Each structure stands twice: as C-alpha cells, then as structure tokens.
Amino acid sequence: MTPSPLERAADFFAAEIARHRTGRGLSKKQLAVLMGFDPSYVSHVEGRRHRPTEDFARRAEAVLEASGAIWQRFREYDDLRHARVGQPNLSRQWLPPSTGLVVERELATLTHADDGYRCVIRRELYNAGTEPVIRYLVRVAVDRYPNDPGRSNRHHREHPLTFAELQIQARRDDAGGDPEPMHWRAKHDRDAFKEIWLLFENGERRFPLYPGDRATIEYTYSVGHEKWGPWFQRAVRLPTRQLAVRLDLPAALDPQVWGVETSLSAEEGPLRTAPQRHDEGDRAIYDWQTDDPPLNARYRMQWRFRTRPDTEPDNGSGGTRVRPSDRMRGLGVVQRGADLLRQRVRPFDLPGEEQVARDVVDRLTMALARLDELHPFSKGVGVAAPQFGIDRAAAVVRPPDRSAEPLVLLNPRVVDAAPDTDEQYEGCLSFFDHRGLVPRPLRLDVEHAQWDGSRLITSFEFGMARLVAHEIDHLEGRLYVDRMAPGVPLVPVEEYRETGHPWRY
Which residues of 310-348 are buried (b: 16+ CB within 10 A; e: fewer)? Predict the structure, then answer.
C-alpha cells in the first residue's frame, strides 16, 4: 500500500532526527537525556510509535543544532496533520522556534569592470518570527585560483583582502520611504574572507525589522582582478523563496559560463537549468534563478574568457611547486619530528579552567576554518591542540558533512572499542606529504568533559570513529604511523588516488 503524504512526512521527520543524532555521535538514550525526555521516547518517535509534538521538535532542533532541518520537517508534518488552509505556506522552509527571517527574493549581480569586480546583493526580507531583527550577517569570500587551493592560499596570505578596498555600502529600502543607510560591523577578518554584520541602524536612528514586517536590504562591495577568481557562489543560509544570479561580463572577452550546485542530499553536479545569455550593447548578461532552494545548498557560477583581458593575471597553476607539508607549516601546524607531538598533553581542570579551555578551542576552530579554505577534506578533518604548539587536552573535529557543527573534545579518553576493525588511508596535517593505511575500530566509545566539568560518554561509528581516534592519539603522543602494520609503506600524496572521496564502509 502506498503511504499517504502524512505518513511520508512522519517518515521524513523520523529520518531527519536519526540523521542528525548519528551525525553527532549520540545514542537515542543520550539524546533523550539532553532533551529532557524519558530515555525510550526518542526510540518511539524514530520508530514511528509516537507522534512527534511541537515541543519535541523544538528541543531536538536546539540540542542537535540542525540548522532548522528538523524544524522544517516537523512543520511539513504538522501542516499536513492539521490540513491547514488559507495560511502562507512556510513549511517548505524552516522557521526557527523564536525568530524566523525569510528571504522572499535575492538578486545577486556581479559586474566585471576595468578595475575589478563589483558585487550588488539585493534581498527582500520578511520577518515571520516573533522577535525584531536588528542585524544581518553577510560573508564576502575570494579565491583567486579555485583549482589550486595551495596557490590561492599563498596568494591571499601575501595579498590579503582588506575592508578598505571592499568599500562596503549598505542600505534598507522600505516601500514608500526613503532609503536608510545601514552601518556595518566586522565579525571575522581573514585573508580570503570577511564576515560582516549589517546593522539595522545608522547615525540618525535605529530601524529594526519587526515581526510581520518586510524590508529590502542592498549591499555592495568591490574586489580587484588580482584577488577575484573566475567564480561567483551563493549559499542558502536562510529560508529563501527565490534566488537569482546575474553576471555582467564584457562581450569582447568572449565569456563561457556554466554552473554547479551542491546540497546536503547531493554531491556537486551541474545546475539543473542553464544560465541564459542576452547581450546589452558591449555587455554579455547571464541570468539564472531557482525557486525554493533547500537550506545549505550552494550554487556556483563559473566562467572563462576565451579572449584573455590584459588587466587580469594568469589563471593557471604555474610557478614553483609548494609541498602540502609546507602549506600546513605556513598555517602554523607543528610538523612531524617536534617533541610536543610525542608527549601526552595536560588535561584541563574544569570548570576552574573553563576560560582557558574555551580560548584553546576558539583557536582550534579558527584553524579549522582556514584549513577548510585550503583543502577539500571530504572525509572530515580534525585538529588537536599539540599540532598548534598547545600542551592541553583539546581537539576539534569537523565531520564529513560540512553543514554539521564541529565536535569539541575536552580531556577525552577511549573507554570501549568494537572488536571489528577495518583499514583505511589516513592523512595527518603534521606530515601531509603522505598517506598511510591504518587499522581502526569501527566503533569507539569516548568519555569526554563538558565546560562545567561534567563528563559524558559518546559513541562514534565508522568515519567519525576514525577521525576521533586519530585526534585522541595526538593528545596521547601518538601518530597514525604507530598504528600501521609493520612493513606497510607510506604512500606519497602524489600517488594517492583517494583525495576528494569519502571513506567507504
């Protein structure tokens, strides 16, 4: 018998809970405890024996930090259960439990000019939540050589992106009113990207976006040719009704344009519809749009000029080759041979040293962000404190799913491991020129500390178990070569063929 739409929606909700729970390495019992439910309740909901409630969905969304995916699935289920009519259909996208900002339309325009690129982002916003919105986070990222992360990273270290050159301007437009300039404040300042808070205020007044109100914000910035690579990416971080992208390029340069997209449920593939070109005078205009894009989807427009402009440097990958280990050393990663990598580190005395631990974790998290700019790390990636010269028991692990929150491990120790093992190739930031075939347990139970000093046990499986085991080894003064079978050689990275592919289980 074919399941009804309501039954399918309940199945999708249960699957979403299970996916985020396992991604965080939590058992059903552990999740129930964190949510404040009876230990059997999560099992009953995942098994479809209990109907999900709004309270359950809100708590699961908060505990699992699911970027709204769990709440979205509940709304879809709840709308069908109550057969709501005559209300705006917000169930296609998630609305956070307190504030719910919706992008009703975004138009992102990138224009090629003689002195560089100018970007104009225009977003029509609707506050569907219950709290006023007073600021809006935007991100500006550059990648001069997208097909050569090492070269691009070196280039941006030597020629960092600056706020001064961006010439950021922002404004809020309301129907029937005069545009209001918006002040902005820097959140993150990195060589290749900036994060900026656009503030719903200026020197004259404040103008929050109140619940039920709409406003259009527009911000612009400029980047020189020497820092902007041949790509333009849009990421869906809020519920979005329509996303439109326009490229405005010189027709004389004979541009070729294509695009790719990725989402949580699909690997990178071509855009489902092709960008459409029309010419306006001496300009080649490419337009593309999509309706109801899923959260965390990314759409990247790419191009090449068959007639190369004299104002732009070579896009190739020539020059002196830099080894992977040199790139890691340039990021501050301690390299193999350093004494600290062979020493057991000191645990934190929690909660007394909570601030010390938070400072260490912040540094590791920042390092993780820079590493993700340098290398794809499709298998996931972890960093341990001794790899950055810090003699403390902390590690941060980013799962293969880039949308998942990094896992923080404080004073971790393995308390149990499955007898079943497998061998997979691993790399290490502290000798990134090689890969090694390493046996690891398929399941690992790890006791680790919380900020308040309490301890919990988390179970990890497969790829996450391997990542966590690798980082705990670092805290105990081991490297993965210590785990390899005698006589098995390391593989030079030039001969390794699994870069960009996840581990197989």
Answer: eebeeeeeeeeeeebbebbbebebbbbeeebbeeebebb
Residues 292 and 379 in one domain: no
293 secondary structure, DSSP code: P
241: left (phi over 0), alpha (psi -120 to 50) or beta: alpha
If asked whether residues 350 and 451 sit together in one domain, one would say: yes
pLDDT in tens, 325-374: 877 887 789 988 888 899 999 999 999 999 999 999 999 998 888 887 77
Residue reference for tokens 């992106």: 161
- pTM of the full structure: 0.48
Stronger pLDDT, 321 or 226, i.e. the higher one: 226
Catalytic: which of 61, 471, 494, 498?
A: 471
* Domain of residue 245, CATH code: 2.60.40
Same domain, 134 and 249: yes
Which residue is it, tokens 């990636």?
381
Q: How far apart are the C-alpha atoms of 31 and 38, rounded to whole Å?
A: 10
- The answer to whether residue 471 is catalytic is yes
Nearest CA to 411 out of 442, 368, 456 is that of: 456
- Number of domains into which the chain is organized: 3
Residue 246's region, left for phi above 0, alpha for psi from -120 to 50, else beta, is beta
Instruction: Based on the fold, state whether residues 289 and 172 are members of the same structural domain.
Output: yes
